[in-house]
């Protein structure tokens, strides 16, 4: 767990330590961040095509994961919308001109389309495509380095980035509402309560939740947890561009633990650099909670 968090935080810190005043270089970084989002999603699609044992117990896996992702996201959304009304997120980010709803929908579809294209190419089974997961990890590290450079040159203080009250509050709301969703899932699916709570504790960290729950509850529950958390990430990517205009808390909260890594560039593009500190703190807290809660509920 600690090594994974270090891999995420280290490039951010290194990037933050790099001063950069050239306007042209900063513009290039902005463009690179946009393109790297598509590259990571493309690699994600390829990796999906190489998953083991997809055909075994597929109907049960799809049933569990579909119910789980719908219930948990609805609980998250209800709690986050309540939070936005109770504690409105006042921000200073001024977009020059917000895109139309059609443009935001097309952007979301484009992002998902890249995943589908990667998946289709991955089905070819070419040997070198098996390195897509590693390639996406290295690409993510480079992306986080660029985000760190961008943060350093945005004028934000280190205190604003590390001690972000909004990010902490949203993380607590997401964790609490997800566990409520886990209880509801257990009742709907006829699962033991601890199993439902364990499935709800992934917060989008699909690589970890799939492994841990497969060891504890078997391949069906482990695969269902994997697809539940993966679907959460993909749905968040689709909804962020539209949600960020109406409820920044909801846009961030639905990203779960991935707000610190895979959905971070999408949040940054849609909500501005001011959203990044809250996203990092939010993702960091949830990433710490995932292995702790899963270990507790799996015991």
Word description of this protein:
The chain is mainly α and 299 residues long. It has one domain. It has 13 helices and no strands.
Short structural description:
The chain is an all-alpha fold and 299 residues long. 76% of the residues lie in helices and 0% in strands.
Sheet having the most strands: none
Number of strands: 0
How many domains in all? 1
Helical percent range? over 70%
Tell me the number of helical segments per DSSP (H or I, 4 or more residues long): 13
Strand content: under 5%
Mean residue pLDDT: 80
Could you tell me the radius of gyration in angstroms?
19 Å
Q: Ranges with pLDDT <50 over ≥5 residues?
A: none
Structural class, from helix and strand content?
Answer: mainly alpha
Give the helices and strands, then pairings:
Layout: H1 2-16, H2 23-49, H3 58-86, H4 101-122, H5 132-152, H6 158-162, H7 165-189, H8 193-199, H9 206-217, H10 219-246, H11 248-253, H12 264-271, H13 276-298
Tag the structure with descriptive keywords.
single chain, 299 residues, mainly alpha
């Amino acid at each position: 767990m600690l090594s994974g968090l270090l891999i995420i935080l280290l490039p951010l810190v290194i990037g933050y330590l790099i001063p950069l005043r050239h306007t042209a270089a900063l513009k290039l970084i902005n463009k690179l961040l946009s393109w790297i989002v598509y590259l990571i999603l493309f690699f994600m699609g390829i990796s999906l095509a190489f998953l083991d044992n997809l055909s075994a117990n597929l109907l049960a896996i799809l049933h569990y994961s579909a119910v789980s992702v719908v219930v948990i996201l609805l609980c998250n959304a209800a709690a986050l919308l309540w939070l936005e009304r109770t504690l409105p997120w006042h921000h200073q980010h001024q977009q020059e001109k917000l895109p139309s709803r059609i443009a935001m929908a097309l952007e979301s579809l484009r992002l998902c389309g890249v995943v589908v294209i990667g998946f289709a190419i991955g089905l070819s089974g070419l040997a070198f495509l098996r390195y897509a997961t590693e390639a996406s990890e290295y690409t993510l590290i480079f992306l986080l380095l660029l985000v760190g450079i961008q943060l350093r040159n945005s004028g934000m203080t280190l205190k604003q980035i590390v001690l972000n009250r909004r990010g902490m509050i949203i993380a607590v709301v997401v964790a609490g509402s997800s566990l409520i969703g886990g209880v509801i899932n257990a009742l709907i699916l006829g699962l033991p309560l601890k199993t439902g709570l364990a499935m709800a504790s992934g917060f989008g960290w699909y690589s970890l939740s799939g492994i841990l729950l497969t060891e504890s509850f078997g391949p069906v529950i482990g695969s269902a947890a994997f697809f539940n958390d993966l679907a959460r990430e993909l749905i968040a990517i689709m909804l962020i561009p539209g949600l960020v205009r109406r409820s920044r808390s909801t846009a961030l909260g639905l990203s779960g633990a991935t707000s610190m890594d895979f959905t971070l560039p999408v949040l940054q593009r849609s909500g501005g650099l001011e959203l990044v500190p809250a996203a990092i703190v939010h993702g960091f807290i949830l990433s710490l909670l995932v292995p702790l809660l899963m270990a507790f509920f799996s015991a």
